[in-house]
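User: Please fill in residues for this 70-position structure.
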């Protein structure tokens, strides 16, 4: 007899692992998690953080201008 492996549970396991990985990299960029990342992933993270900062400054500027015209 061959052992039947439930595919759905394995899929869920993999999905959960991926979820935790993304959570760790996006929300908590600690040294430990960054070390585990490959170079292109760290580059992506850096680009993302820079873009986020740029977007925040842009929104602040627009808010100020809109307040001025009110």
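Assistant: Residues filled in for all 70 positions:
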């Amino acid at each position: 007899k061959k052992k039947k492996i439930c595919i759905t549970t394995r899929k869920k396991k993999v999905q959960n692992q991926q979820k935790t990985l993304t959570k760790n990299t996006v929300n908590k960029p600690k040294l430990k998690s960054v070390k585990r990342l490959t170079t292109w992933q760290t580059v992506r993270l850096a680009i993302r953080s820079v873009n986020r900062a740029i977007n925040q400054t842009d929104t602040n500027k627009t808010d100020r201008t809109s307040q001025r015209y009110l």
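For context: The chain has a mean pLDDT of 65.
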